[in-house]
UniProtKB/TrEMBL annotation:
It comes from Kribbibacterium absianum. CDD domains: ABC_MJ0796_LolCDE_FtsE. Keywords: ATP-binding, Nucleotide-binding, Transport. The keyword Transferase does not apply. Residues 4-229 form the ABC transporter domain. Belongs to the ABC transporter superfamily. This is ABC transporter ATP-binding protein.
Length: 229
């Protein structure tokens, strides 16, 4: 069995008398150590997939597994722990705590986890060893996103989930962030799933899941991207 499994997952939102089917029978899998990019146009259902994988939303039907855990069977309390301990999140707009330094932001997130990595070491790994005591407002957008990635990595999670992680960055900075996520994934073996509408991301992916109208319309597996360099 693969590390991540989505089996015929559906998500229907009830909006008064109208049903909106956001995800309509989605099936895919991701192996450990893979960088997976979920790509598709706006409204295709990508964020809903990410939210269900991250335990922020529950499927209407179908099965979602991570390792030996069945996420789709978890109750609210289990999902809360799952989000806090097992998943590292990276968002488009960094979501750093403004009155904490870089190293404090990373420590804050990791401290509730059972097996956290040292904050300063992780910041060094993402290229911010010289920025430990800076506040977010003193950092560029790319640097803030590196802090956010360090914060996610330091939890030592089962999985990193990134929603449009370069959406607020210029092309060159965004490219460096993607390379950082790729290195992280291949060095630690932690799978990384990135949601984006940007097809340029598919070049660095080990697996590309194209989403259209709530379904996986095409899945591409790139066999040896890690050794391609
Ligand atoms: P994407 O991330 O690909 O842009 P989304 O997963 O955000 O797509 O949305 C897929 C569809 O589900 C869209 O039609 C959207 O309007 C709808 N949708 C998403 N979240 C909700 C919600 N909380 N309530 C109602 N409809 C939603
Ligand atoms: P809880 O408050 O019960 O821990 P949340 O869903 O609010 O549940 O947060 C769980 C984890 O998800 C947090 O550790 C946080 O890192 C992440 N998270 C979820 N949504 C956001 C968001 N919009 N901005 C920043 N982090 C978020």
């Amino acid at each position: 069995m693969a590390f991540i499994e989505f089996q015929d997952v559906r998500k229907v939102y009830h909006m008064g008398s109208v049903d909106v089917t956001a995800v309509d029978g989605m099936t895919f899998s991701v192996e450990k150590g893979e960088l997976c990019v979920i790509v598709g146009p706006s409204g295709a259902g990508k964020t809903t997939v990410l939210n269900m994988l991250g335990g922020m939303d529950k499927p209407t039907s179908g099965v979602i597994r991570l390792g030996d855990r069945v996420v789709s069977d978890m109750d609210d309390r289990q999902l809360t722990y799952y989000r806090r301990l097992d998943i590292g999140f990276v968002f488009q707009f960094y979501n750093l705590v403004q009155n904490l330094t870089a190293v404090e932001n990373v420590e804050l997130a990791a401290q509730i986890c059972p097996d956290p990595l040292p904050a300063a070491e992780v910041l060094e790994r993402v290229g911010l060893g010289h920025r430990l005591d800076n506040f977010p407002a003193q950092l560029s957008g790319g640097e803030q996103q590196r802090v956010a990635i360090a914060r996610a990595i330091a939890k030592n999670p089962q999985l990193l989930l990134c929603d449009e992680p370069t959406g607020a960055l210029d092309y060159q900075t965004g490219k460096q962030i993607l390379e950082l996520l790729q290195d992280t994934c291949h060095e630690t073996g932690q799978p990384v799933c990135i949601v984006t509408h940007n097809l340029a991301f598919t070049q660095i992916a080990d697996r590309v899941i194209h989403v259209r109208e709530g379904r996986a319309s095409k899945i591409e597996v790139n066999s040896h991207p890690a050794s391609a360099a």
